[in-house]
Specification:
The complex is a heterodimer of chains A (387) and B (354).
Chain A (H helix, E strand, L loop, with lengths): L13 H13 L9 H21 L6 E4 L2 H16 L6 E5 L4 H12 L3 E5 L9 H7 L4 E5 L13 H10 L3 E5 L11 H4 L3 E5 L10 E5 L25 H39 L3 E4 L9 E6 L4 H10 L8 E2 L5 E2 L2 H5 L4 H4 L2 E5 L6 H28 L1
Parallel strand pairs in A: 2-3, 2-4, 4-5, 5-6
Antiparallel strand pairs in A: 1-7, 6-7, 8-9, 9-12, 10-11
Chain B lengths: L1 E5 L4 H12 L3 E8 L17 H14 L3 E5 L1 H17 L6 H20 L4 E3 L4 E5 L5 E5 L16 H5 L1 E2 L7 H10 L21 H8 L7 E5 L4 E5 L22 E6 L4 E5 L5 E12 L9 E6 L7 E8 L3 E11 L6 E6 L2 E8 L1
Classes of the chains: A alpha/beta (387), B alpha/beta (354).
């Protein structure tokens, strides 16, 4: 069944599955132990830390393992906020299209008295550097803008935004969960203090990720306990998962350029095919600044929820917007922030490609999609008449 | 046949899904999310279609091996069901939202969705039966279990809707349904039935209406039938015809709400005998056959869900209204409730009490 939902999660690479299974089976030592069982597990963490550091251009000492992207985002924002609260910097800026991991974390900080500013985006989901410049004040502690957006794929001008934050003495965090493994991510070039990433978005296992923390950044520990992760995140490490993250990071670093080009060509083929085969379609996002695997397309007059289910029943996995706690779908806050009409926010489907997708799969989808869309459109028109 | 089954997470729709699957149909489970489940507003919701129910539906679908999706009907539920419910209470009537949920959501929006998925029918866990005649007409009958029959809530379905409706548990008694659930090892086999209106938390209608229609409810007077003031009340939406409790007036004989006058914000009370009436008119009448009778007919007529259908004559007043004359006076005929006409077990039609 063709899987076009790689921004939700990706299949685990066989080499990753292999190392995770091997570590679970053979390496049970506690990395904090002095004996050789412990040393072997510690070496696994060290290797993985080096691999993640190499992937994002950091020093291994700047990488803290987490349970995933959401925890990394929480740690970044709460850790900095709590450390900087005594300095009087109690203002936080983020874009309006951040993932819920960031948005709901800053909402929680707002309840604690933090001032929050959400930056607008244009119709292509880009944050304007001038908007940040206008919003900056000397009490801003941290600015958080995602590198690539999960729903439409737009890539932000992070280094330019970070420079504006730094001019006023603020830290900069970027949620790079959707860019890591898809495009070049380098913490020095991006000029960020904090960067979140997640293994399962680039063929690693679920439940593991990392936060890059630039050396010298003042942070309050995420959890307190033993001296794991340089006392920043206590608790015995998820050794097998972290080993998987390490292998996925190595694969992403060494193979990304070629893979990204292939995935990008396939995405373009699918996107062009849909736009020409189905009338009333339009791409959401920024074609000039976008991760190569993602296309988000509006289908005029079609309830996206129905299209998603119909395609699933026909054997194609795609997605739309974001899910409520129940698993039902709700209108996307990203598409709304882009200023799309209420209709269009409910008509949009995300196709996100990855390793393993083939031209044949894209063509299969193109063969089915026009009929499905036409059928759903005829029903929508029927409902409108009745109402 | 590909059939969409509306799964609430309760035992009836769960068994309905299992029966469809056992009969060899391609069943697709859909659960409707009807209101915001994030819980951020600090407002708790009622007893149906909660996160726990959606979880149950998902577990059942998994256990019987059918696909399951949750569809977001918040907007439709709000527009078709909740707003009508609130409007009716504000207008001094006592609504039954379940009828709208059936005819305007399950057998309308959901039916459309089903068609989009190439499903020929929509099934629900209602205790009711459909009989398909050779000429294509469909008759609607009471469920076989007299204690559970839910045909009352389905009176407004049209032929076009009934043709595509399926009620797999309509031939069963409740204990048989539970027995099937047990046999299949479904986790919901002992789940208790819901009796309240599903979206009203703690069964507190008044608070719900006040939240949804702020400023539209106002205090007024409680009077007897001659207009003597007996007390004050906090809003007519807090009362229904036949209500005895919560009036806050003391009298030598028990007093009941006999009339509600929303224009003057007046609640009128009287003795039990004053509740008795032998006639009513109903609007927005639906005839299951699709054909309005040409003349007066005799039928057994129900005036609320838990009412023993009583013999009456029905006089059509144009295409969508009727006048009903009962052989014996009935207690507490309540505007806003549905009146449903039966011939034996067969639903002939129904309408809304004026």
């Amino acid at each position: 069944m063709p899987y076009f939902d790689h921004n939700a999660t990706t299949p685990v690479h066989p080499e990753v599955a292999e190392i995770v299974a091997r570590v679970l089976r053979d390496e049970f030592g506690n990395p904090s132990s002095v004996h050789r069982y412990g040393q072997r597990s510690k070496a696994i963490l060290d290797d993985a830390r080096s691999a993640v550091a190499a992937l994002v251009g950091a020093d291994p000492s700047e990488v803290v393992f987490t349970s995933g992207g959401t925890e990394a985002d929480n740690f970044a924002l709460r850790g900095v906020a709590e450390a900087l609260e005594p300095t009087g910097r109690r203002h936080l800026i983020a874009s309006g299209i951040e993932h819920e991991a960031v948005l709901n974390t800053i909402k929680a900080l707002a309840k604690r008295g933090w001032k929050i500013t959400l930056l607008p985006v244009n119709e292509r989901a880009l944050v304007a550097p001038d908007a940040l410049r206008d919003a900056m004040t000397d009490d801003v502690a941290v600015v958080s803008v995602m590198h690539a957006n999960n729903e439409v794929g737009t890539v932000q001008p992070i280094s330019e935004l970070a420079a504006i934050a730094h001019e006023r003495g603020a830290l900069f965090h970027t949620d790079a969960v959707q860019s890591t493994g898809k495009i070049r991510v380098n913490v020095r070039e991006l000029d960020v203090n904090l960067l979140s990433l997640s293994a399962h978005k680039f063929n690693g296992p679920k439940g593991v990720g990392a936060l890059y923390i630039r050396r010298g950044t003042r942070m309050i520990a995420h959890t307190t306990g033993g001296r794991h992760e340089r006392s920043r995140r206590a608790g015995t490490e998820n050794v097998a998962g972290i080993a998987g993250l390490g292998v996925a990071a190595n694969l992403a670093r060494t193979k990304m350029t070629g893979d990204a080009a292939a995935v990008g060509a396939l995405r373009d083929r699918l996107e062009r095919g849909i736009l020409s085969a189905v009338s009333g379609t339009a791409v959401n996002g920024d074609p000039n600044s976008r991760v190569p695997n993602t296309t988000n397309i509006s289908f005029e007059g079609v309830e996206a929820e129905s299209l998603l289910i119909a395609l699933d029943l026909d054997g194609f996995a795609v997605s739309t917007g974001s899910a409520c706690s129940s698993g039902a779908l709700e209108p996307s806050h990203v598409l709304r922030a882009m200023g799309l009409s209420a209709h269009r926010t409910q008509n949009s489907i995300r196709f996100s490609l990855g390793l393993g997708n083939t031209e044949a799969e894209a063509d299969q989808l193109l063969a089915v999609l026009p009929r499905v869309v036409e059928k759903l459109r005829s029903l929508t028109r029927g409902s409108a008449r009745r109402a | 046949m590909r059939i969409v089954i509306a799964m609430s997470g309760g035992v009836d729709s769960s068994v309905a899904a299992a029966l469809l699957k056992e009969a060899g149909h391609e069943a697709i489970g859909l659960s409707m999310q009807l209101y915001d489940q994030r819980g951020e507003a600090g407002v708790s919701f009622g007893t149906c279609c909660t996160l726990d129910d959606l979880y149950d539906a998902r577990r059942v679908a998994r256990a019987i091996g059918i696909p399951h999706y949750i569809v977001n009907f918040e907007r439709e539920f709000n527009e078709e069901v909740i707003s009508d419910f609130v409007r009716e209470y504000v207008a001094g009537r006592t609504p039954i939202p379940c009828v709208h949920c059936n005819s305007d959501l399950k057998f309308s929006t959901l039916l459309d969705r089903a068609e989009g998925f190439d499903a020929e029918r929509v099934a629900t866990g209602h205790y009711a039966r459909v009989v398909r005649e050779s000429d294509g007409r469909v008759r609607l009958l009471r469920g076989l279990d007299p204690a559970k029959d839910q045909s009352y809530f389905l009176f407004s379905l049209t032929q076009a809707q009934l043709v595509r409706a399926e009620f797999p548990v309509g031939e069963l008694r409740k204990d048989e349904v539970r027995e099937i659930a047990r046999r299949l090892g479904l986790t919901v086999s002992e789940k208790k039935d819901s009796h309240e209106i599903c979206f009203v938390p703690d069964n507190d209608y008044a608070a719900f209406v006040e939240r949804h229609a702020p400023g539209q409810v106002a205090a007024g007077l409680i009077t007897d039938r001659e207009g003597h003031v007996l007390g004050r009340h906090e809003g007519t939406h807090r009362f229904t015809i036949g209500q005895r409790k919560g009036l806050g007036v003391s009298a030598a004989i028990p007093l009941y709400v006999v009339d509600i006058q929303p224009e003057t914000k007046q609640v009128i009370v009287g003795p039990r005998e004053a509740l008795e009436r032998a006639d009513l008119t109903a609007s927005r009448v639906n005839w299951i056959s699709g054909v309005t009778p040409a003349e007066v007919i005799r039928a057994d007529v129900q005036i609320r869900y838990r009412h023993h259908a009583a013999p009456a004559t029905i006089t059509p007043l144009g295409a969508s209204r009727v006048r009903i004359d009962f052989v014996q006076p009935q207690q507490a005929i309540t505007p806003g409730q549905a009146t449903v006409f039966y011939c034996g077990d067969e639903v002939l039609g129904g309408g809304w009490i004026d």
